[in-house]
Amino acid sequence: MMFKLSLIAVIFFLNFSVFADEIAADNFGYKLTSLEYKLKNIQENGNDIGLDEADDKTVIVPIGFSFSFYGEEYTELEISSNGFVTFTPTGDAVCCDGQVIPTLGGELDNFIAGYWQDFDLSESGVIRTLNQDINGQTTFTIGFYQLADNDNASEAVSTFEITLYQGTNDIELQYAQIQYDEIDDKVLGIENQDGSDGIQLAFYEANNGMANGTILQQEKGYCFSTKYQCKTPTKEPTPIPEPPMILLFILSSLFLATRYFK
């Protein structure tokens, strides 16, 4: 009897835990999940895109393939020295605060914020890009390495990466370390073309009481995906039952168990 009850408990756990790593979701269909930390570290072999020594500057670069973001296809993006990329180039690096996601009528739309805040690469840091094959899948990585905060260059230095996946259109964020400075608002996440939808991984408000240099993310990985969760697909994934179906399955199992053990 105990074995059968334990089996039912295991079935309950396996069905429910499918959703355990989901952190957030938006209306479009993106889901934010946690991911194994694995920095690609393209600082040495990546392309110098001309943002070394930059403060509040942008550059437009080719992605190397067609990438779908909120249902629109893009072959290039704009990189800001302030820690984000946008698929709607404006030439504006948007100093100095990151905005809450989503924000209608904000300073910026259609973006991926690795760590949007006020950086100054003239103090320290480089930004590199690289197309590479990862497990048979073409990717494009934008790496931000040892970027110094404009207001506190000695205590707040950050390293992180944004990677786009061809075909699956997944977005991967990897954080070696990002640090806090009290002057500006900071944000991590994605936002659609008009600011009506998005997922906010984190928002750090200025002057919130944290000490300068506080580590906000360290050796963490995240994925924004509508399908594959930043894993190379080998076949079409098996559809996962929605939570109401899982609940129905659990209740049915418990009902049958009580009948069986009478």
From TrEMBL:
Keywords: Signal
Signal sequence interval, chain numbering: 1-20
Name of the protein: PEP-CTERM sorting domain-containing protein
